[in-house]
Amino acid sequence: MDLSSTGGIVALAAAAAALLALALAAVLWRRVSRLRADQRAVLGDGEQDLVAHAADLQRQFEALHGWVIDVATRQDGRLETAERRLDAALAHRAVVRYDAYNEMSGRQSTSIALLDAHRSGIVVSSIHHRDQARLYVKQVREGEGAVPLSPEEQEAVRAALAGEVPDEREPAA
Question: What residues make up the domain containing 124?
């Protein structure tokens, strides 16, 4: 066949178009293969379509969200319980030493305030004299004594709530 004739030119054009179509088909085949590989990465090896996969992901996300909410709720409950228990624990304390009888025998008498986060607890006072010692315990509610507190006991409560370590001193007047 003569390539310079009309039939030859048409044959060459057809061959060129066929080669171009073949190259285009190879490029498209490669893109489709990549697309399928990407689709398998997203959808897995199952035979479900994108809509079914999205619906499955939504169900799984909702289940996970419900589980997280449940865990967070349980943690909140445990945290509230722990906070209540900590609030009832010893949070403020102070010791005041003094000479209750001004005998110059040293500051042998002591008042100790032991309070929780609600400023409630006890004050323990030990009053020492040369030949005797007395021990007193008084309840404190919200920073105030249930019965009248001595000046030293009041100082111990005040120092405990202020977080101070009071100076050893003579008895309060």
Answer: 92-162
Tell whether 40 and 62 lie within a shared domain. no
Enumerate residues 6+ apart whose C-beta is below 8 A from 9: 3
Task: Compute the distance between CA of residue 172 and CA of residue 111 in angstroms, rounded to an integer.
Answer: 12
Q: Whole-model pTM?
A: 0.53
Report the domain count for the chain.
Answer: 3
Instruction: Mark whether 5 and 26 lie in a shared domain.
Output: yes
Runs of H (alpha helix) within 88-127: none
The 10 Å Cβ neighbour count of residue 37 is 9
* pLDDT tens digit sequence for 140-156: 998 889 899 999 999 99
The two structure tokens encoding residue 143: 């920073």
Per DSSP, the three-state class of 121 is strand
Is 100 in the same domain as 138? Answer: yes
Q: Compute the average pLDDT of residues 20-35.
A: 95
Q: Report the chain's mean pLDDT, rounded to a whole number.
A: 87
Instruction: Give yes or no: residues 122 and 102 share one domain.
Output: yes
Q: Which residue has the tokens 């624990």?
A: 89
Of 14-28, 79-93, 95-109, the one with minimum mean pLDDT is 95-109
Q: Is residue 170 assigned to a domain?
A: no
